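Board notes (copied after class):
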Amino acid sequence: MLQLGERVVIVGDAFEQNLPVGEYGYVIAYDRNPDNAFDYVIRAPKTGRNYYVPSSDVESEELLLEYEAERATKEALIDYALATHNEKLFMHVMNGGDQDADGQKEPTKEVMSQAEFIKQVNLRAWI
């Protein structure tokens, strides 16, 4: 649950209220009425208006920055792995770690040649 006064980013418009999607706002109140679909009242400084929004339409700015940093890091690692032909790093990044709950690496099912690896990368690039 978001805290009062927390800076949030409007990420959706589920009820088509003409919300300023992509803009930031501040949580100014909770809507605790169980008969209502809205969870928060958001103040958007750019428009100078208050909006009733469900929790799915807003996201904490800090959380969005974390997601963006993780995505940029993953893309940079993929670019580095492709530039250096580091197949292990590429597979590690693409498979999300390649480890089970015990921390043990899963055995690889087959060994690809460098030509097959490049072919797989090119196939994923076109998808």
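Comment from the instructor: Residues 61-84 form the longest helix (24 residues). The mean pLDDT is 85.
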